[in-house]
Amino acid sequence: MSLSVVEAITNRRATRKYTDEAPTPELIDKIVNLALEAPSAFNAQQREIVVITDPAQKQKLYEASHQKQFLTAPVTFIAVARVENEPEDLEEILGTERAERVAGFINGRSLQQAREATLRDASLAAAFLILAAQAEGLSTSPTTGWDEEKVKAAIGIGGRDDRAIALVIAAGFPNEQPEHPGRLQNRRIDNSY
Fold this sequence. Notes:
Family: Belongs to the nitroreductase family.
Organism: Corynebacterium glutamicum (Brevibacterium saccharolyticum)
Largest sheet: 4 strands, antiparallel
Radius of gyration: 18 Å
GO molecular function: oxidoreductase activity
Protein name: Dehydrogenase
Structural class: alpha+beta
Helix content: 40-55%
CATH superfamily of the domain at 5-9 and 19-37 and 46-84 and 116-172: NADH Oxidase
Mean pLDDT: 92
Number of helices: 8
Cofactor: FMN
CATH class of the domain at 5-9 and 19-37 and 46-84 and 116-172: Alpha Beta
């Protein structure tokens, strides 16, 4: 059942109620693999997707956010930014020559600049994940209302400055069909403000 990109975008709604049916491991793998096809700065791929299906881990996410959909969704995805100025796998990804050129730019960033850049990359992957899930029949609830340090602790990276959380996304087969909430049409700016 794959929807087109246009269908996935126009049909997607934040959904907080899910059926008891869990997506198969193969479907979860497909969605994550599609998410990781998202573009990234220099193709450095400084983002990861954490997949949560364990009830104890879901409880920790709930405690970090008080968002019930993390308890009831069969799967929750966390888009994580790898905030590193010297990624250890850069050469493996880009090859020696290109990695050396890219490293010259990446290494010159401040930690704040690295955080901002890698959060953008992780957010792109999260957006791809949301659309991939929608295309495959799942609904999602992308969230930002959580304590980042508590989320990081819940997934085993507490206290680490080299990782940042972009989005936490509950997902499952929908048990509700929310109506379109509407969108303002005046958000397009041509050429300049």
